[in-house]
C-alpha cells in the first residue's frame, strides 16, 4: 500500500474537510485497505489522534469509538455481559488476536462487507451509528447507503433488556463464514440477522408472542426462506439456506428459552 499524502487529523472537522476531496481515504486499522486493489492512496486521513478508541458506558447504552479495535470489544467484560457472550462469539473467529488488535469497528462497518460477522451481530442488536455530519442513524439504514464522504465516529449499542445469541459456520477456523446468524429478543419482539449469504446481512423481525406461538423450528424455516442466498467457492446457495435455518432455530431456542 502506498500513500502519496498523509494527515494525522487534529479534529473531526479537519478529517471531514479533508475527506471531501476526491481520492482521500480514511484509515481504520488498514487491515482491509492494504489488501484492496487501490494500492496507491492519494490522501490518507488518520483518525488515531482523536480519542475515538474508547468504549463509554452510560446507564442506557454503550458508545463505542470508531477506532476501537475488535479485540478491545472482544475482551470487554461489560459488552460480554450485555450481549450474553454473543459479541465475543462473533469476533473470536476473525483471523487471530494480532489481527483483531488492529482491525477497527469503524472499518468493519464502513467496509459493509457481505461476510461480516460484526455487521450481522450489530444488526440483530439494532445498533445505531453516528456520522460526523449525518448524525445518529440506524445501522440498518447506514448499511444500505454507507458513509460516502462522511466520517463514522461512533457505534451505539442500547442496553435495552434482551437476550442475544450468535453463531456462524466456517469451513476452516479463521476463514470467512459460509453463513452467519444472530438473534436478539426482548419481551416484545425478536430480531434476527442472517449474513454472509454471501452478500450483506439482512434483518428479520417477529412479535415475541407470535414467535413463541410458532415455535423455533417453524419460525427459523420462515426466516431462512425469506432471504436470498448465493453460491461461491465456500458453499452453494442451497447449503447456505439450510444452514441458516439450523442456526436460526438453535439461536431462537437459546434466546426464547422457557417461552418455547
Ligand atoms: C484477511 C482478512 C480476513 C477477514 N475475515 C473476517 C471475518 O471472518 N469476519 C469478519 O467479520 N470480518 C473479517 N475481516 C474484516 C475485518 O474484520 C475488518 O472489518 C476489516 O479489516 C476492516 O477493518 P479495518 O479497521 O482494517 O478498516 P480499513 O481497512 O482501515 O478500512 C476499511 C474501509 O472503511 C473505511 N473507514 C474506516 N474507518 C472509517 C471511519 N471512521 N469513517 C469512514 N470510513 C472509514 C476505510 O476508508 C475503508 O474504505 C477480514 C479482513 C481480512 C483482511
TrEMBL record:
Source domain of life: Bacteria
Keywords: Flavoprotein, Oxidoreductase
Molecular function terms, GO-annotated: FAD binding; oxidoreductase activity
Span of the signal peptide: none
Domain FAD-binding PCMH-type: 1-162
Coiled-coil parts of chain: none
A Pfam family reported for this protein in Swiss-Prot or TrEMBL: FAD_binding_5
Name of protein: Carbon monoxide dehydrogenase
Organism, scientific name: Megasphaera cerevisiae DSM 20462
Lineage of the organism: Bacteria, Bacillati, Bacillota, Negativicutes, Veillonellales
